[in-house]
Amino acid sequence: MTGAHIYTLLVAVAAAQGGASPSPPARHVERAGGYSFLPPPGWKMARHPSQPYAVAAGPRRKAFTPTLFFADRQAASSVGAFIEETVKDGQAKFKDFKKIAVSMVKTDAGRATAHKLVIESSPEEAEARLRQTTYVITKSSGGYLVVYCTGLADEAAALDALCDGAIRTFKWEQSR
To answer: What is the pTM of this model?
Structure first.
């Protein structure tokens, strides 16, 4: 999925969130993906027709709903190469694309490490500058589970704390 498609999806998820059937936040177990995590406080889980896994949606702020969604990606390259491809794709698609940071986050369960990429840009579909944190978790079966957390760039500190907090609670429920 390209950067433009990711932002288009996020805008669609945010728009559709009002019509979804959200459930109260608790440890979310995604049986189809074989993982679980605690959504950020105040966020709700909802199904979206374009996504195989449930999407976490935060409270709407300044005409934007922050989201956290999970996607399977094939492992055609190393994690480092995957991150660099993501950066190059963003630089090609968004004139004001900015790579903020690359780091790692350990999960509470300690059985997984998420490689973290933080970017900012102003996609045409959004009315404000967005911040997207991409977490890449390697599956034991090959490939990656990629987690995208997107919100308003001017709320970066709060968004980073919420996203990192959710990822720290991530654990595999079955071997993947």
So the answer is: 0.84
Amino acid at 158: A
The closest of 130, 101, 140 to 3, measured between CA atoms, is: 130
Give the amino acid at 41. Answer: P
The three-class DSSP label of residue 16 is: helix
Contact 143, 76 (CB under 8 A): no
Give the single-character DSSP code of 17.
G
CATH number of the domain bearing residue 67? 3.40.1000.10
Tens digit of each residue's pLDDT, the chain (176 residues): 554 444 434 443 444 444 455 554 589 999 999 999 999 999 999 998 989 999 999 999 888 999 999 999 987 789 999 999 999 999 999 889 999 999 999 887 677 789 999 999 998 877 889 999 999 999 888 899 999 999 999 999 999 999 999 999 999 987 55
Contact 19, 27 (CB under 8 A): no
Q: Which domain holds residue 149?
A: 3-172
CA–CA separation, 127 vs 116, rounded Å? 25
β-bridge mates for residue 143, sequence order: none
